[in-house]
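Morning run. Coffee first, then this:
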Amino acid sequence: MAQLPHATAKAGAPRDGSGTPAVEHDPVVFVVDDDDAFRGALTNLLRSVGMRVEAFASAQSLLTATWPDAPACIVLDVRLKADSGLTVQNDLARAGVELPIIFITGFGDIPMTVQAMKAGAVDFLTKPFRDQDLLDAVTRAVSNDRVRRASQRSLTELKLRFQSLSAREQQVMTLVAKGLLNKQIAAELGLSEITVKVHRGQAMRKMGARTLADLLHQAVLLKIREEHA
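And here it is:
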């Protein structure tokens, strides 16, 4: 398998020296097609509406690229000379690269479409397709990736908050997530119920949870019950 791309696309928003999130960069569309004329036409179309485009003639070129820290998507030909687009999709998934993929092909069939969509493709366009169909698909894909990146940033921030808890506060939050009452947690940890309440209150404050329901929701997102069982 070819060397896989650097996983910078999975990182959260870049931050400046003060720790403040920097302005998100403009979206990028990766176009992969071994037909020079068609690849050029797609590139020109996307750039004509103000999109940043990185174009590649092969899967190898894509798989050795460095992802920008920006919302992005991949427009990928299913039938490349050296690789199947579906294989490239699997390679990216195994590497943890989650960019939305729009497949294009001149030889599409229903089983192929189903396989691609089940593996997470956002669209499957059969040549010839209208320019607007591609632009609409790219717009949806970039929007999906923007939502994914925001969700990843939120989860990263949540993990940092959990790591900021003391060991005892983490224990208490974990037991709260398992559904234990304060008196049960006190018995489990050999503490007084008042001490448990203090630790729980501190955990809620540091996690930014206004209610117990908020704290439980955060525990679900962090998979605390499973990972700290």
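DSSP finds ten helices and five strands in the chain. Good start to the day.
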